[in-house]
């Protein structure tokens, strides 16, 4: 089995929120104030992903903070406003040469989108991609998305596995079961935690800003490097804990993280260990397991004493075998 480093404790990681709203759609703060709020919280990048309106705001970019162009595209329901429907995160991908023109700043899109049958979500995903974007399946749990949708539709890059706004407001925010369903059916897709924040007051005791994020390993903080590393899966998602290092050496998958209550190796179809110091309650920051060739994938969840989670991206076992990637 090959050795592979997924996250390197010696390399820089940049913190980002890929899903939020401003007054360009239904958010409470204008973009300039959103940028200030996330800078104050120690973020390095955000996507101003307003509903049906694309943002491209290079004017906010500095040496230590950037905005990734994008939007949230929705309004696609078999029965308007009744069926669960689809919201997709749309992120500008500068690492590809698009077939069609890239979207411009404040370019707006009509909603609802007419439903033309089951292929409609795929048409929308492909259309967004043809303009040079990555596509994310947003908040599946909150939307009551059908599990099969994450298998039936293709060419999306990630599933939103934690959506803080829907946890903050309705406690229905965890999409990791959808992710496992996609992975178990052979999809190579990543998981993303994000805020989806709309409202913010810096005096609020329970803030909507800063509840879910990604940490992207990258040599530099540029739009192209961040997106390149997102596409390679060189990142993890979190609502609290940190993952410092994740690697396979001599068939052992080892994770180093901030002090946690549980470290869970979610391997499929052969189960991995779920580890906790049940007797003494001592926090853990290191764990490992042996990978077996019959495993399809392994992903790791680190859960802290407040119940917050860090999610690694999947280790696809086929990549580690001879002839693999
Ligand atoms: Zn949405
Ligand atoms: Zn949203």
UniProtKB/TrEMBL annotation:
It comes from Cohnella silvisoli. This is CehA/McbA family metallohydrolase. NCBIfam families: CehA_McbA_metalo. Residues 16-77 form the Polymerase/histidinol phosphatase N-terminal domain. It comes from the Bacteria. InterPro entries: PHP_domain (IPR052018), Pol/His_phosphatase_N (IPR003141), Pol/histidinol_Pase-like (IPR016195).
């Amino acid at each position: 089995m090959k050795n592979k480093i997924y996250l390197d404790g010696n390399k820089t990681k940049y913190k980002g929120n890929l899903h939020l709203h401003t007054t360009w759609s239904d958010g409470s703060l204008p973009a300039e104030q959103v940028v200030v709020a996330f800078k104050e919280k120690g973020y390095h990048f955000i996507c101003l992903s307003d509903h049906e309106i694309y943002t491209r705001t290079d004017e906010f970019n500095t040496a230590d903070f950037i905005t990734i162009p994008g939007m949230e595209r929705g309004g696609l329901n078999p029965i308007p406003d009744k069926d669960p429907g689809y919201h997709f995160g749309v992120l500008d991908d500068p690492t590809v040469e698009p077939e069609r023109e890239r979207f411009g700043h404040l370019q707006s899109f009509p909603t609802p989108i007419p439903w033309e049958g089951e292929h409609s979500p795929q048409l929308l995903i492909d259309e967004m991609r043809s303009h040079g974007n990555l596509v994310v399946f947003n908040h599946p749990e909150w939307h009551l998305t059908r599990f099969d949708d994450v298998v039936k539709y293709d060419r999306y890059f990630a599933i939103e596995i934690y959506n803080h706004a829907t946890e903050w407001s309705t406690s229905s925010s965890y999409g990791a079961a959808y992710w496992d369903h996609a992975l178990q059916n052979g999809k190579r897709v990543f998981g993303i935690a994000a805020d989806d924040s709309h409202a913010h007051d810096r005096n609020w005791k329970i803030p909507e800003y800063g509840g879910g994020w990604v940490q992207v390993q990258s040599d530099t903080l540029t739009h192209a490097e961040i997106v390149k590393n997102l596409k390679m899966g060189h990142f993890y998602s979190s609502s609290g804990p940190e993952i410092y290092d994740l690697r396979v050496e001599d068939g052992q998958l080892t994770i180093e993280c901030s002090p946690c209550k549980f470290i869970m190796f979610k391997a499929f179809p052969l189960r991995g260990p779920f580890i906790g110091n049940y007797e003494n309650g001592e926090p853990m920051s290191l764990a490992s397991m042996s990978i077996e060739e019959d495993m399809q994938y392994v992903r790791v969840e680190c859960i802290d004493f407040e119940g917050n989670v860090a999610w690694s991206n999947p280790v696809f076992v086929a990549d580690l075998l001879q002839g693999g990637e």
